[in-house]
Design goal:
182 residues, alpha+beta, Aminopeptidase, eight-stranded mixed beta sheet, 7 helices, 31% helix, 33% strand, globular, binds coenzyme A
Length: 182
């Protein structure tokens, strides 16, 4: 099966473990983070994180989801998450970072490495992602990676407790291969 540990210039991406929960639960539990994600409840407790972690190995072994905890090489801090999961037969890219770690290019760097993994190791033809209409920061990250607009739909958001307008974007392996990092 495909490798579980990925590396980029400043980051080490590895499967999240039970021992990480105390670090990441408060970061993803921040409403400014969870309101931009589809499947993260608010409030978010350590038991929610433990439940999520407990299924990761099984989902990876079945080829359904490849989730990475993003850690910083310089100090080992667990700063966020980035991963792929199958939705309607195609992999969706998702990611989040704790607020203290925003605006340092980490989201773009980690997502680029996960996309390399998707195209070079999982050999998928394309990946999709969705960003809520009021989250242009994430839209900008996806545009930098080469994603192109595909549509707009209502998507449920657990933290907000309702549907939110969501931009759907896609990236093909050819487009990704033809782009120089920016
Ligand atoms: C969205 C998120 C992942 C971005 O993480 P990040 O590490 O700050 O992202 P990066 O530093 O790699 O890039 C952010 C880019 O957005 C730009 N940006 C910042 N605020 C912006 C805004 N309001 N509108 C448009 N672009 C914006 C930055 O300038 C930067 O682009 P640049 O490198 O060209 O200058 C982070 O804010 C986050 O975790 N948010 C909550 C969860 C989330 O939204 N997940 C994605 C769901 S689709």
């Amino acid at each position: 099966m495909s490798r579980c540990i990925l590396e980029s210039e400043r980051l080490l991406l590895r499967p999240p473990e039970r021992r990480d929960v105390a670090q990441f639960a408060p970061l993803i539990g921040d409403y400014e983070v969870s309101k931009n994600l589809a499947n993260v409840p608010h409030p978010y407790a350590e038991k929610d994180a433990l439940e999520w972690v407990s299924h990761l190995d099984e989902r990876r072994a079945r080829g359904e989801a490849f989730q990475f905890g993003v850690t910083r090489k310089s100090d080992g801090a667990y700063i966020g998450g980035c991963g792929l999961h199958l939705d309607k037969g195609e992999f969706e890219l998702g990611y989040w970072y704790g607020r203290p770690y925003w605006k340092m290019g980490y989201a773009t760097e980690a997502a680029r490495r996960v996309l390399e993994f998707a195209f070079a190791e999982l050999l998928v033809p394309g990946v999709w992602a969705g960003w809520f209409h009021d989250n242009p920061r994430s839209g900008h990250v996806l545009t930098k990676l080469g994603f192109k607009a595909k549509g707009f739909e209502k998507r449920s958001c657990m933290a907000r407790g309702g549907d939110v307008g969501c931009n759907i974007v896609t990236l093909s392996s050819e487009t990704f291969a033809g782009r120089a990092p920016s």
